[in-house]
# Entry
Amino acid sequence: MIFTKTKIEGIYVVEPKPKTDARGHFQRMYCVNEFANQEIDFKIVQINQAMSSKKGTIRGPHMQKPPNSEDKLMQCIRGSIFDVSIDFRKESPTFGKWVGNLLSWENKKMVFIPKGIMHGYQVLEDNTVVQYPVSQFYSPDDVIGIRWDDPFFKIGWPIKDVIISKIDESWPLFSL
# Structure
């Protein structure tokens, strides 16, 4: 696996190294030893999967607050997404900054997202599926979020005609 640091501390683009032959390919999606070599302590407790039927759909951005903060390893297993991670750690020098990555079945890239990072994504193709292991169980009472179009963060979503859930649409605008 190849780990590439982003401009935000703790967020990595993770690229598997597929072994390809006439049958197709085989690749490792997670290895505790390879993550430990990067000094990432990521213990999986749950694996989630979401299918979005319409291009333009945005899920998030949101996260779980302490004590139920979670690490995630985002992967697109059908279609493609524009994956966004926003530094929401107030003590961080990159607080409020975001990074976006194209994740697709074709490029096989994943993004490791540590605790304290808001996360969301926009679907770039109909019937797209993402799958992601997390380090903490889902705790609905600890979920917080920001609006997808919040002017404080200025996220550059690639598709302007968006589909948003009522919950994600209802997050208040951020203020310090």
